[in-house]
Design a protein that fits this description.
351 residues; alpha/beta; Rossmann fold; 11 helices; 17 strands; 28% helix; binds zinc ion
Length: 351
C-alpha cells in the first residue's frame, strides 16, 4: 500500500511517500480502515518528524513510523470479536491509546494513563491507504461531515474541549483570551468558549486570520504583530482583565503580557510548546501568586471529552475549519503550508 514513512528524524524531507509498504495485520478486536483523509497537527507531527516528541516517561517515536494522529475513512474489515462496526461504516479515530488498567484510566482520566501511547507517534498512524486500530478507538462520523472535516476533530477539538471545559471550567461570565486563534487548537477553543457563552478576545499575528475569527464569533480582535495583548485585553474588560487564557503553545513575550492582563483569580490553561523550542519560560512568579493565578497544564483529552465534542458536531453546534487539502503525494508541501503559518484552521491530506 501507499504510505508516508519516516525512516530518520530531520526536516520535512524525511516525510517520504512509499509505494509498497506492507498492509497492517488485523487482530480479533481490531478494525481495518481504508483511509480517506488525514488531519495534520503542527506541534505533534513536527515533533515526531524531528524526534523531539516526549510524554513524561516516554521516548520519542521509534522508526520507521507512519505519521498521522488524526484520520477518517471507511471500515473494510473487522476482527472476529468486533460487533460494534461493520464494513462500510464511516469512522474517525481517538489518537490516544490507553491501557484501561492503571489508576488514572480506572478513574476516567484516560489522558493521564501511565502507559499512554499515541497513534502516529508510538504506533503507525493514518497517513497510509490502510490503518488498523482496536475497535474501541474508533467513532462514527456524524452524517453531515465530510471525511476531510472529520479528520480535523480529535486532536484539536478533543484537546481544546478538554482544556476549556473539563480543566478550566469556562463560564458565561468569563472573558477568555485565545492566542494563536488561527491554529487548529485556537479555532476549536474560540468556538468552544462561545458555545459556553463566554466573551472571547482573539489574538493572532495577521489581520486576515482575525477577520476569520470574527466570523466564528470572536468579540475582540488583537493583532499582536502591532498591538499589545495586555493593553487591548484591559481595554476590552474595562481594566478588570481576562479570567481565562487559552494558550496552545507557549511564547515568552505572550506570557509577559498575560501577567499584565489577567484578572485576580484568573487561570491559564496550556498544552504544547510550539513557541519555545526547549519549553522554557522566564516569568516573575510574584505576579502569579499575588493575583492568585492558576496555571493548568494538559496533554490530549479523555475519551469522554472526545465523545462530548463529537456529540456537539452531531448537533451542528461546532464547525470544522479546513483551510486546505493536499494529495498524499504532496505531504511535504502540506506541512510547509502549515509551518509557514499560512493556514487558518486545519490542513488535510487526501489519501
Ligand atoms: Zn492507563
Amino acid at each position: 500500500m501507499r504510505a508516508v514513512v519516516i525512516r530518520k528524524h530531520g526536516d520535512l524531507d524525511v516525510l517520504v511517500v512509499e509505494q509498497d509498504v506492507p498492509q497492517p495485520t488485523i487482530g480479533d478486536y481490531d478494525v481495518r480502515v481504508e483511509v480517506k483523509a488525514v488531519g495534520l497537527n503542527y506541534g505533534l507531527d513536527t515533533m515526531v518528524v524531528r524526534g523531539l516528541f516526549g510524554v513524561v516517561g516516554k521516548t520519542s517515536a521509534l522508526l520507521p513510523r507512519i505519521p498521522g494522529a488524526d484520520f477518517a475513512g471507511v471500515v473494510t474489515e473487522v476482527g472476529s470479536a468486533v460487533d460494534n462496526f461493520k464494513p462500510g461504516d464511516r469512522v474517525l479515530n481517538d489518537f490516544t491509546i490507553t491501557c484501561g488498567d492503571c489508576q488514572p484510566c480506572r478513574a476516567g482520566r484516560t489522558n493521564q494513563c501511565t502507559r499512554l501511547n499515541m497513534v502516529g507517534v508510538h504506533r503507525d498512524g493514518g497517513a497510509a491507504e490502510h490503518v488498523v486500530l482496536p475497535s474501541h478507538k474508533l467513532r462514527r462520523i456524524p452524517d453531515s461531515l465530510t471525511y476531510a472535516e472529520a479528520a480535523v476533530i480529535p486532536v484539536s477539538f478533543g484537546t481544546a474541549w478538554h482544556m476549556m471545559v473539563e480543566i478550566a471550567n469556562v463560564k458565561p461570565t468569563d472573558w477568555v483570551l485565545v492566542t494563536a486563534v488561527g491554529s487548529g487548537l485556537g479555532v476549536a477553543a474560540l468556538q468552544i468558549a462561545k458555545l459556553h457563552g463566554a466573551h472571547v478576545i482573539a489574538a493572532a499575528g495577521s489581520d486576515w486570520k482575525l477577520e476569520r475569527a470574527r466570523e466564528l464569533g470572536a468579540d475582540v480582535l488583537v493583532n499582536y504583530s502591532r498591538e499589545s495583548i495586555a493593553t487591548e485585553a484591559l481595554r476590552a474588560t474595562d481594566g478588570q482583565g481576562v479570567n481565562l487564557v487559552f494558550d496552545g503553545g507557549i511564547n515568552q513575550n505572550n506570557w509577559l503580557e498575560y501577567a499584565n492582563c489577567i484578572a485576580y483569580g484568573g487561570r491559564i490553561v496550556l498544552s504544547g510548546t510550539i513557541g519555545s523550542d526547549d519549553g522554557q519560560l522566564h516569568i516573575d512568579i510574584k505576579t502569579f501568586y499575588r493575583k492568585h493565578i492558576q496555571m493548568l497544564g494538559n496533554c490530549a483529552y479523555t475519551a469522554s471529552s472526545l465523545n462530548s465534542v463529537i456529540d456537539e458536531f452531531e448537533h451542528g453546534r461546532l464547525r470544522p475549519v479546513v483551510d486546505s487539502t493536499f494529495p498524499l503525494e504532496q505531504v511535504q508541501h502540506a506541512y510547509a503550508h502549515l509551518l509557514e503559518r499560512r493556514a487558518f484552521g486545519k490542513v488535510v491530506l487526501n489519501v
